[in-house]
From TrEMBL:
Domain of life of the native organism: Bacteria
Keywords, alphabetical: 3Fe-4S, Electron transport, Iron, Iron-sulfur, Metal-binding, Transport
Listed Pfam families: Fer4_13 (PF13370)
Natural source organism: Actinoplanes teichomyceticus
One GO MF term: electron transfer activity
InterPro entries: 3Fe4S_ferredoxin (IPR001080), Fe-S_cluster_ET (IPR051269)
Gene3D superfamilies for this protein: 3.30.70.20
Protein name listed in UniProt: Ferredoxin
Primary role: Ferredoxins are iron-sulfur proteins that transfer electrons in a wide variety of metabolic reactions.
Length: 66
């Protein structure tokens, strides 16, 4: 299982995570900070989630394997 954690305090509201994995991430309307839509995405989304985490310039996305 892959769990997605987001450190909002680090997020720089750049949106790369949303571009990479729009089913898993969104951005708040008011300040652009990312939100996690699905913190335990299915296997079919793991590739996109890993791409999103790698693309985040603020290292705000942590993926926990269990
Ligand atoms: S890519 Fe990182 S910094 Fe940019 S919106 Fe997503 S979590 Fe925030």
């Amino acid at each position: 299982m892959l769990t997605v954690e987001l450190d909002e305090s680090r997020c720089a509201a750049t949106g790369q995570c949303v571009l990479a994995a729009p089913d898993v991430f969104d951005q708040r309307d008011d300040d652009g900070v990312a939100v996690v839509l699905d913190d335990a995405p299915g296997r079919e989304r793991h590739g996109a989630v890993r791409t999103a985490a790698a693309a985040c310039p603020a290292a705000a996305i942590r993926l926990v394997e269990s």
